[in-house]
User: What shape does this take?
Amino acid sequence: MTTSYVHCGWGIRSAVRVIEWGMPSSAVPSASHRLRSILGGSIGNLVEWYDWYAYSAFSLYFAKSFFPPADQTVQLLNAAAVFAVGFLMRPLGGWLMGRYADRHGRRTALTASVLLMCAGSLLIAITPSYATIGIAAPALLVIARMMQGVSVGGEYGASATYLSEMAGAKHRGFWSSFQYVTLIMGQLLALGVLLVLQRTMSVAALEAWGWRIPFVIGAACALVAVVLRRNMAETTAFTKALAPGETRKSALTSLMAHPRSVATVFGLTAGGTVAFYTFTTYAQKFLVNTAGFTKSDATLISAASLAIFMCVQPLVGALSDRVGRRPVLMTFGVVGTLGTIPLLTALSTSTTFGSALLLLTVALLAVSGYTAINAVVKTELFPTNVRALGVAFPYAVAVSLFGGTAEYLALWFKNMGHESWFYWYVTACIAASLVVYVTMPETRDSEMMRDVEG
Assistant: This one.
């Protein structure tokens, strides 16, 4: 494992060496440079998540291109299965990029991850259809999603760590919430591109070739993100951790020195990620496939609710700076446990644009109790030398098992004729995480973050 990591790390450093030429030094950043670095990191995060969510937003149109002829639910199941494959690669990305970020810098890891995302988007954009190359089409789609899964698995841990270490202690929850602001903004941009194409192209044209446009855009924007990340400063905490003569432990040894923190990251993520993917990426398909809305109306409802969701994140993050992280997480856990089944039941029978928008917005406001602060809570559980890996790896495992399979399970239950079983599944996952929220320590004033207070 150590030998393979050395080769992998050397390869990553070689790939980004030219890009990093001319980057600012690792000196302690000024307040203005700190702000520019936070914004630069956030915008790069936006581009990565746009690329990731473009797949989900456009799967209603490209499913016919990549898979054999079948009814809509079966084709969406195939697309959801490939979506889940991308999630299965996230633990590998979390391990490799998290370990790399702890050894060679948050900034370098962030640059490498966005380059890999660019390559994955470009591959999806240029892959011929199933009618042209047969089984090779879904095979190439799987490879592209695997590349993107590794990228996103690494991006989350490095980005969460970078924003938390760059933010001051007093407003760490507020600034860290911008990770999800830009994550949601990426999803909104994907939906925005979809709305524009829906209004300028016919359904036939979108299904034939128009769905490739967002992936071309994503590949191009990823290169822009690389340029933005050139001007990011390295965090002071990481610079201090590179003291000359320091003896480094293996990544596994360092991670296993914090078993409770690892278990906490996994447990607090499980319910939150199921709820997040249920009411964001799957909601669009749910509105079409279950409630009976048109594709364009479902897209607009999803976009409007996500816009409100995005704006709430900094408010919830700032609230956690005042009242602590646990009360905010527990609020999400209680509301999610009690409200998921009635809300999804009501949404499944909703017939008007306004009622569907209201229900979905209420759900996302509750989920904000998890999304706005989950990243900062995780970073506050680990010391600098293992922080990126400690955040990224257990989170990626939980997201792969729960978030990545949520859409597939929902469609599977529906295909079996028992769609309501999925509502109970989401409720059970949130309830299990609520137990973690109740028993975990408060992290706002964590001793682990003493190295970033200045």
In short: The radius of gyration is 21 Å.
